[in-house]
Amino acid sequence: xxxxxxxxxxxxxxxxxxxxxxxxxxxxxxxxxxxxxxxxxxxxxxxxxxxxxxxxxxxxxxxxxxxxxxxxxxxxxxxxxxxxxxxxxxxxxxxxxxxxxxxxxxxxxxxxxxxx
Length: 116
What we know:
This protein is of the alpha+beta class. 22% of the residues lie in helices and 17% in strands. The chain is built from 3 helices and 4 strands, in the order αββββαα. It has helices at residues 15-23, 92-102, 106-110, and strands spanning 39-42, 54-56, 62-69, 87-91. Strands 1-4-3-2 form a 4-stranded antiparallel β-sheet. Strand 2 (54-56) and strand 3 form a beta hairpin. It starts with 14 loop residues before the first helix and ends in a 6-residue tail after the last helix.
């Protein structure tokens, strides 16, 4: 919301999303504090072309979708360094929130086995 710019197409925030944000209508996708996580940083080993790759937890559950990495981490194509490599992932809870609450695509949500 804080980066909205109606003059730039990619930075326009739809009214429905603003309403969901203002009313904090995130359930059941909010975290324990009632906040809506959007993205997270991890130290996964990624390379160019990994955008869109699934991010899994130790139990094999989808927890995010990789979409970027820090500049310092680009060297991991040659040598992985856990202290430097960071990737940025879309939190799957936000993805589900958008599918369910913003797009009202309950048919897609109903096809998923959502683990809490």
